[in-house]
Amino acid sequence: MRLLIRLLIPVVSLICITGCLSLWNKGSGEKTATPDELFSRADKLLKDKSYSEAIETLERLKSAHPDYSKIPEVYMKLGDAAYDQGSYENATSKYLQFIELYPADKEVPRAKFNVAMCYFKQIKGTDLDSRAINLALDAFKLVAGDPNGGEWTKKAEEKIRECRQKLAAKEFYKAKTYISVSNYKAARLVAQRILDEYPDMGFDEQAKKLLKTLKDK
Known about the structure:
Elements: H1 2-8, H2 20-24, H3 28-31, H4 35-47, H5 51-64, H6 71-85, H7 88-101, H8 108-121, H9 131-144, H10 151-180, H11 184-197, H12 204-214
Helix pairs in contact: 4-5, 5-6, 6-7, 7-8, 8-9, 8-10, 9-10, 10-11, 11-12
């Protein structure tokens, strides 16, 4: 639970969905739509990749019918819509709300995996900032350690390796950066760290070559 709370910290505050009021003013048919009709409409909008409209419809459904039997699915669909839209902070927020509100739901492992994927999708190129990778790595470990994770456990384990490969790549980039400014001692330490902490991640030979090159510097 502590890890879950920490993962929520980088998530921006929930962004209010605008335009909902306009939906209520489109005619009496809209005002009398049943929960099932709204749910079906949102489903169709998602299939049509009309994510903003789908989100508006789902938010309306959630607000107007909080006791609807499919409300847990509504939260997941809100997360999925934001994810497919590329709004990863919003998606993370919705998935984490779902996990907190419905901890026993069968979709929790997928929600946890998707939280990790939201962080993974925000990983930038091979620069010196490893924050997004570490957030994704921690989140994937949360899934991998879930005894009820099912198919998502294996997927998380695969992503953990990818994260470690990316961390190794960043360490190698860091070593080369130190060399470029003639900080050879720091470069040696980083190259050795690649061998010690990230073995078999595809950078062993390059790290060894760097250490050999830097031996007398």
